[in-house]
Amino acid sequence: MKIRSMGRLLLPLLLLVGLSGCSNIEPWVKPYERDRLADPIMSFDMNPVSSAYMQHVYEAREGARGAEGSAGGGCGCN
Amino acid sequence: MIVRRGIIITILGLLMVNGSAEAGVLPEDRADVLYHLYDGGGVEIDGPSLLVRKRIGKSTSFVANYYVDMVSSASIDVITTASPYTEERTQWSLGMDYLRGNTTMSIGYTTSVESDYDAKSYSFSVSQDMFGDLTTLRLSYALGDDLVGRSDDPAFEREIDRQHYGIGLTQILTRNMIVALNFETITDEGYLNNPYRSVRYLDAGSPIGYSYEPELYPNTRTSNALGLRGKYYLPYRAAIEAEYRYFTDTWDIKGHTVAISYVHPLGPWTFTAKYRIHDQTGAEFFQDVFSRSEATNFRGRDKELSALTSKTFGLAASYEFIGGVEGRGFIKKGTVNASIDFLQVDYDDFSDLSTGAALDSEPLYALDADIVQIFFSIWY
């Protein structure tokens, strides 16, 4: 399947990235340049309690799951 | 008799979500009290969710969540093959994050209980910050045990084992942009169909032209999902986020999900608008009507396994009633939040049997739901 071959490509790439973590790479965005990224509006998950609930709704209503954030379990699926 | 699919599998989340831009930092101490309401398609589900997170010492953070679904259902499935019902589901979650240097280790436990279904999940993850905290790599694993029952048969008991594997990479690209790539594989093994649901098949002996028989799913399912999201800080103080997910599984469901959102602060207010669209093909063993009884080895007519398109438009507003440098007492910040999401699902291969139309002229089913959330959050 297409996604499996993507996974096969992705894994070595990520391992490579992981291993190269030991080398001394100069961060190109300096800590003092991260003020905007630190703004709460830049968080991928501004309100975990709310996003977990919406994820739960989508998992109950759709056939897909995973890689879209996070979720609690259970549902009222009927 | 709450019906469910794909349960307690991605429990990692609520307990372990770290702000991606906060590499090597424990999540903030905060508490949330939320009321949620889902109303649509003959189903009303509401209840509370309470989330409390607190650091103990410099390197450990604990989190607990209490969540309830109170269900009142007269959905299309229920009114065509069963009787309306009410049900309650209670879920507890506990988790801990431990930070050591650039590594965060997290463990979590979740239990969900209702009258005919119990679910437990155990999760573990490790995330590592690299390259001057520009990059975060996260590996996760979760194990789920479900026990499926039947409200009309106390002796009925079936198990489901779930395994969940995740790998994620979050990357700061520029001082205005952050991206995240996530890959998740989920495997299920056990009793995956719904003990109450039926499929229909053509039956010349029936006055309406068809009859029902219990659905029968495969005992295994493996799904893969690849998600990419990015967030960009605009030239003025506002952010835009885009997200795409590709999904595929061994039941032959393929899905594409796209979402875009815009966040705009205005004084003490923060407004968010979001649009999300999900499109999927149906499961290979799904049919709206089978040609005869036991026509195929596996059979299902669960509308979530039909080809469908789901669209959501959401608006949210947040008001900061405690803030500034000082805060108030032990509270650093407090917000009150409200949101509404309009969900519309169009099923491409699932007929609406409630209209009483003849077999060949049944309209396709469509669902509209309003999703309301109201919550208070405090940071301390």
Question: How would you briefly describe this protein structure?
Answer:
With 78 residues, chain A is mainly α. Chain A has three helices and no strands.
Short descriptors:
heterodimer, A: 78 residues, mainly alpha, 3 helices, 46% helix, 0% strand, flat, disordered C terminus, B: 380 residues, mainly beta, Porin, 16-stranded antiparallel barrel, two-stranded antiparallel ribbon, 2 helices, 3% helix, 64% strand, globular, disordered N terminus
How would you describe what is shown here?
The complex is a heterodimer of chains A (78) and B (380). Chain A is mainly alpha-helical. Chain A has a domain at 30-63. In chain A, 46% of the residues lie in helices and 0% in strands. Chain A contains three helices and no strands. Chain A has helices spanning 2-19, 35-38, 48-61. Mean pLDDT of chain A is 74; it is low at 70-78. Chain B has one domain (12-379): Porin. Helix content of chain B is 3%, strand content 64%. The longest helix of chain B is centred in the N-terminal third of the chain and has 6 residues, at 76-81. Chain B is globular and about 75 Å long. Chains A and B meet through helix 1, helix 2 and helix 3 of A and helix 1, strand 1, strand 2, strand 3 and strand 4 of B.
